[in-house]
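The instructor's notes for this session suggest beginning with a concrete chain rather than abstract definitions. Hand out the sequence below and ask the class to guess, before any prediction is shown, which regions might be ordered.
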Amino acid sequence: MTAAKDFHNYPTPCRGPDTPYYNPDKSNPIVRGWPLLIVASAAASLNVVSSYLWSNAGFDSLRKIKELEQYEPRYDPTVIPIADPSVPPRDSHTYRPSSREPPHNGSRGYHSAADYHALYRSGRLTPTDSAEALLPLIRRDTSPPGAHSIAFLSTEVDLVLKAAEASTLRYKQGKPLGVLDGVPVAVKDEVDLDGYKKSLGTVKDYTREEGGTSWCVKQWEEAGAIILGKLNMHELGMGNE
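After discussion, reveal the predicted structure:
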């Protein structure tokens, strides 16, 4: 059995609530043909119908278990093995410096987070420089649209520049938050992001009424990364991959 001491960030096991299992029998009608089409259309267009079907299927049953509120949620399942000094290190398949041409002297390579970080610390480039160089390429609201704007659903210029300027100031003061500070990134339209709508690649608005930013994106923001905007995607993620 794996021991917690062998991993960093290994969760501490805890006993679950003593909640009795309850699964009542439900009699749901068989629907096919035109009635099925009508019900499906109603569920897609009327929130009251979709909410009823969601609840009737029991998808919200976990929220009714009040005992779960005393448990701290864990969103990041990542655990890191702690190296055993008695075991010789294996060749890394995740990073080899020779596998990527450094993006300097006019090469067509790609900048890594480490490249941006080094440039920012040296003063040869600032996060604001990066943002101002990328925005004309990704904006849809310009005429003509940016060369790569088809990949982006929306970009809030004010939010991008505000984050870039804050990062630039941190580097100027010699206090960057880490290697991701000032690194430009973007998120798919399936996550929540304050200041942006969420449409899941459709014409509908799925933005949560209470607003907020998804946990995974917050980790980027707290590390100082510059969120350039929402990336386009297949409708509801149902592509032909």
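Then share the key points. The chain has a mean pLDDT of 82. The chain is about 30% helix and 5% strand.
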